[in-house]
Structures are given as structure tokens and as C-alpha cells.
């Protein structure tokens, strides 16, 4: 059998030592490219059967022009840069790594929530300017008397919920997996509600759902339903919250504040009107990161590719394709 052409289409990590070791142990070789556009991928990846992919767009045009492509493994959870319909059409298996940074993302969401509810960044700035006055933080509310609404109760949403439960918060959840499957049991101490009810009752709304099914889920109408004392946290994907609507919500006081780790177009421009709001916090899509999570991600991406190449079942399939490469 001709050795498969394995390509890392793009990767902004400091090195690829982990991937190199995984492939070397299985006697596979690979190439590391820096593709930015679909035309880059098409021009440089002819004959490739396996992609390890970070940001480069894997579109229908790419798949149509790379007939040997059989697998795309994403560095991360989201697959919004991969055309899944086209993957089904062209018989391309798509995989991700959904479990490498679960605790990190949940921890980050909790940190953003606490920063907002305890008003830490704002008070830090006041103290630095010489204003030592706790009354400038009024009002702050006891967490054990707060309701936290979680949109999406997958791995990360569940981990976040468990951490928030430790604060004594009431937890309400909106998730179609539980709504549409009566046999699926919600974890103890959580209540299943409709989205409108969640927005109206929550003191904090935290988003943990995929973009593919939730683009513009929170726009003007939804944000207006929130309490004017409530906070919004998004560590999932930009585009779930309409940024123009969020700017209006902050400007007009529909909500008390928001913290995000993601933007619809990243990086979020320094000219974004969101930055004029003191009660808006933003981090640079870093919720997934810890040293341990970064190494785990790299290892699992390479190991998934190896399983596929050896004709073994993949662990993290996004679609149901079975065009395994066999001798």
C-alpha cells in the first residue's frame, strides 16, 4: 500500500513534537503546512488523504478538488470551518477532540462569571486610580440566592454546572437533548426550562452550545428578556450572541454586563463598540488553554488520525462516514 499523505494544514502551536512522536511510533510521516485559504489547501495538498486542521477552511471546493481526502481531524471542539454537508457528499470523515479542555473551559466560564458578579475588574481599576471605596461596587448579590441559566448541557456545560452548584446557585438548563428525549435524566439539582424562561429567570446566563445549531440564538428579542441585573457569559462560539444586539443591550442597560472569550470574527477588533462598556470583559479565545490541555489536544488529534489510518474505529466522529483506509 502506498503510504498515505498526511498533512497538518495549519497549526499555530509552538511546536509539533507531540504529533511527530505519535506518527513516528506508528511509522507514519507527515507534512506541516501553513495554509490560510481554500486555494492554499487545494494548491499544496494534492494527494492528501488525512488532514490535521486548525483554522484553514475545508470547504466543498476543497473537497471537490482533493478527491483522495478521507479524513479531517480538527484541533479542538468546534468544526465550523469544515463544511459537514460537503464532507458527507464526498465521503470525508470529520472528527474533533471534544474532551481535551473540558475543565479548563468550565473554569474559565466560572472565572468570568465571578469577575462580573463580584465586579472585580471594575473595582481593581478604581483602586488603581486611587479610589478606595467599596460602595462603588453596590449592588452585589449573594451567589447562593442567584439563578444561573446554562444553555447547552454537554461536557463543558455539565462541568460548569457542577462548579456553580458548589456556590449554592440554583441551576436551570435549556438543552434540546433533554427536551426531546424523555428517558434522558437531567443531573441532580438542575431544572429543565425553555429558553425564554431561562433568560427571564437567570441572574447569570452561560452559553455552552455549538454554533452550528445556535447562530444568532441571542439577538435583540432574547436579550430584552433578560433581567437588567443579569450577566451574560459566552465561552462557546462567537456568532451565538449577536454582537450588535449585545452592544445595544449594554448601552441601554437591558443587562448588567457581559464577558466573552469568543467573537464572531476573531480577533475582535479593537474598534469594536463593545469595548466602550466598562461592564464588558473579553479574553482572546483562551478558555481551552492550560499546559496540560494543549498537550492532550495535540496527542489526541494525532492518535485519532492513526486509528483511522489503521482501519480502527475513530473515537470522535462528527459524521457517519466509514471510508477507512485499509491495505
Question: Can you put this structure into words, describing what you see?
Answer:
This protein has 327 residues and is of the alpha/beta class. The chain contains 12 helices and 12 strands. The longest helix is centred in the C-terminal third of the chain and has 19 residues, at 291-309. Keywords: NAD, Oxidoreductase. It holds the Pfam family 2-Hacid_dh_C. Residues 21-319 form the D-isomer specific 2-hydroxyacid dehydrogenase catalytic domain. This is C-terminal binding protein.
What is the H/E string? Answer: EHEHEHEHEHHEHEHEHEHEHEEH
Query: CA-to-CA gap between the ends?
Result: 6 Å
Mean of the pLDDT scores? 95
User: Sheet with the most strands?
Assistant: 7 strands, parallel
Number of strands: 12
Percentage of residues in DSSP E strands:
5-15%
Report the oligomer. single chain
| Class based on secondary structure composition and strand pairing | alpha/beta
* Annotation field: number of helices: 12
Which of globular, elongated, flat, extended, rod-shaped describes the shape? elongated
Radius of gyration: 22 Å
Helix content: 25-40%
Low-pLDDT runs of 5+ residues are: 323-327
Largest beta sheet: strand ordering: 8-7-6-9-10-11-12
